[in-house]
Amino acid sequence: MRFSLVVPTLNRQFEVEAFMQGLDRQTFRDFEVILVDQSRTDLFDEIVARYSHKWPVKHVRSDIRKPRHGCNLGARQAVGEIIAFPDDDCIYEPDTLERVDAYFRNTGNQGFITGAVLNLDGAPTAMGRWLKQSQPLNRSNIWTGLIEFNFFMPRDLFEQVGGFDENLGPGTSFGSCEGPDLALRLMLLGVNGYHDRSLLVRHMDKSSTVNGSRAYDYGTGMGYVLRKSHASMRTVLTFFIRPLGGALLSLLRRQSDQAAYYFRTLLGRLTGYFSREARQIARHTPQKNIS
C-alpha cells in the first residue's frame, strides 16, 4: 500500500462525500482511507460501504472530538508507506497523489512535502498568506509554507516523532500550527521538507466572519509553537508586528471588523507564546540549529 489518508470528521456527510468523489478522480489509485468518525452516529455507514468497493476504507469510531487525536488514532491503523491527513472538507486535484508519489520515488521515501491551496473555484485561497514559489522549508518559512491538509510524509517518520501534539489544533486551548510543530520536530531529526507550488489541494475559503471568530484561537496555537520550537526572536517579532501593523492600517481605513480580526490574532499569539504551558514545554524541547 502506497498511501494512507487519515480523515477525522464530525457530522460532515456532504463534505466527506465530496472528498471521496475527488479521490475517485485520482490518476494514482494505490491508497487506503481511514475515516475517523467522531459523530457518534451511523451517518457515514453508507458512504463507507459504497466506497469500500473502490479502495480500502477503514471506519474508526472515536468518542474524543479532537481532530489531532483522531489523526493519531487513525494513523495507528495505517499500513501505507506515505501518510497524510486531509481535512474532511478538502478536495484533492486529480494528480495530487501522482505528484506526491513521484516526489517520494525521487527522494527514496525521504523527507516531507507540502503544497499550495486553492479555493473550491480553483482560485488562490484567501486563508492567510503563503509562499509564492516552490522552495525548501526551514525554521523561518515553515510558518507560511505548510498547511496540514496538504502535508505528506513517510509513515515511519511520523511514528518516529510521536505523531501530532494533541495539545494543538481545534478543540484545544491552542487552536493551530499542529503541522508546523510536527514538521519542526521532523527537521530536528535532519529530515528535509519541500514546498511545491504545483502540488494543489482545494479547500473552502473561510468567510471573514468565521476567520474573525477563530483568529484568537489560531493565534494561540502559533504563539505556543513559536515558544515550544525556540523560534528566533526575529521570527517571533515578525509574527507579532504583522497583525499589529494590519490592525493599525485597518483602523486608518475605517475597517473596524478587519482591525478587530488583526487585534484578536495578535492577542492570541501573545497569549500562546507567554502561556505557562508553552514556557514549560519549551524547557523540555531540544534546541538545534535547523537551516
Largest sheet: 9 strands, mixed
Mean pLDDT, to the nearest integer, reads 94
- Full CATH superfamily name of the largest domain: Spore Coat Polysaccharide Biosynthesis Protein SpsA, Chain A
The rough form would be described as: globular
Low-pLDDT sequence parts: none
CATH topology of the largest domain: Spore Coat Polysaccharide Biosynthesis Protein SpsA, Chain A
The secondary-structure element order is EHEHEHEEHEEEHHEHHHH
Structural class call reads alpha/beta
User: Residue share in helices?
Assistant: 40-55%
- Which percent band covers the strand fraction? 15-25%
Report how far apart the termini are.
Answer: 33 Å
Question: C-alpha Rg, in Å?
Answer: 19 Å
Give a count of the beta strands, DSSP E runs of length 2 or more. 9
Text of the CATH class of the largest domain: Alpha Beta
Molecular structure report:
With about 290 residues, the protein is of the alpha/beta class. It has two domains: about 5-205, Spore Coat Polysaccharide Biosynthesis Protein SpsA, Chain A (Alpha-Beta Complex), CATH 3.90.550.10; about 210-285, no CATH class. It is built from ten helices and nine strands. Strands 1, 2, 3, 4, 5, 6, 7, 8 and 9 form a nine-stranded mixed beta sheet that branches. The longest helix is centred in the C-terminal third of the chain and has 21 residues, at about 210-230.
